[in-house]
Amino acid sequence: MPCPNYRRKRTISKAFRVSREENECIELLAKAAGVTQQEYIMTKIENKEFTVVPDLRTYKMLRDSMHQVYQELCRLRDCSVMDERLIARIELLSEFFVHIAGDNARCELNEEDALIADMKRG
């Protein structure tokens, strides 16, 4: 049945199934980019990149997502049983924080490793 609004640009509907982990990833990435999930998916299909300009909304979204991860981590008694969904979310959020910090962000562990490597035994 044709769309009642003939001026509408997109008249075909596509649907596909994703896992819970994939859904959370798409939602998080779209929110961080400040676009709808459809816009995010279409941009990725077209091999385009988003430039996320961190603003207050982005920081709040990341803070809330990180708080959820923190709550899940607090519940764990044995970290060897972390589910893949939590690990994927931690990795995704970590990438966001690194990219927001910019190229000048330095990892303290890398600096410590460099200091240890430069140490000489006397």
Summarize the structure.
The chain has 122 residues and is mostly helical. 59% of the residues lie in helices and 0% in strands. It is built from five helices and no strands.
Sum up the structure in keywords.
mainly alpha; 5 helices; 59% helix; 0% strand; elongated
Q: Which structural class do you get from the secondary structure elements?
A: mainly alpha
**Domain module count:** 1
Rg over C-alpha atoms, rounded to the nearest angstrom = 20 Å
Average pLDDT figure: 77
Number of helices: 5
Report the uncertain regions.
none
Beta-strand residue fraction: under 5%
Kindly state the number of beta strands.
Answer: 0
Order of helices and strands: HHHHH
How many angstroms does the end-to-end distance come to? 83 Å
The biggest beta sheet reads: none
Oligomer: single chain
Helix content: 55-70%
What overall geometry do the principal axes of the alpha carbons give? elongated
How does this structure look, described?
By secondary structure, the protein is an all-alpha fold. The protein has one domain (20-117). Helix content is 59%, strand content 0%. The protein is built from five helices and no strands. It has helices at residues 20-33, 37-45, 56-75, 84-101, 108-118. Helix 1 packs across helix 2 (37-45), helix 1 packs parallel to helix 4 (84-101) and helix 3 packs antiparallel against helix 4. It is elongated and about 80 Å long.
SSE arrangement:
Layout: H1 20-33, H2 37-45, H3 56-75, H4 84-101, H5 108-118
